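Workshop exercise sheet. Pairs work together: one partner reads the sequence aloud, the other fills in the structure field after running the prediction. Swap roles for the next sheet.
Pair: D.N. / O.F.
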Amino acid sequence: MKEKKKKEEKTINIESIIKEKEELNDKLLRTAAEMQNYKKRKDEEISKIIKYSNEEMILEFLPIIDNFERAIRLDDENLNDELSKFLEGFKMIYSNMFNVLKNYEVEEIEALGKEFDSNYHEAVLTDCVEEKEDNIILEVLQKGYKYKDKIIRHSLVKVNRKGEMKNE
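Structure field:
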């Protein structure tokens, strides 16, 4: 009888050890999976940080580009020679700066004459021009830009909204 009881105890002890081993193995597998997921998330996060590392600098640079564009829009047909040369220098500097932005994969978002898309544009004004289609961008007030595949600044635009201004 004692021998049978010892055998039962050993069987129970072996079963509990097997169960504990399975539980520990399961915990180990879960921990390994969690570590793998953590590593994957960290790698993606680091990759994203590296990919967009210049974003802050580019955002600070865009207002300078805006100011150059405003200066270049001056009509230089009626300007004296000295001012025309100065404006030509501005155009060269602007061109060089814009090429630097292009090298960093910064692109202007096309807007004028395009259909309004809230993913790329921000409507700050509306107008009603019967000759134009509804929801078409009439004027770009501030250019928008993409950095690689990310919108870093939406275009500020005036959009055609037929029927909105008929009461005026």
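Discussion prompt: The two ends are 105 Å apart (CA to CA). What would you look at next?
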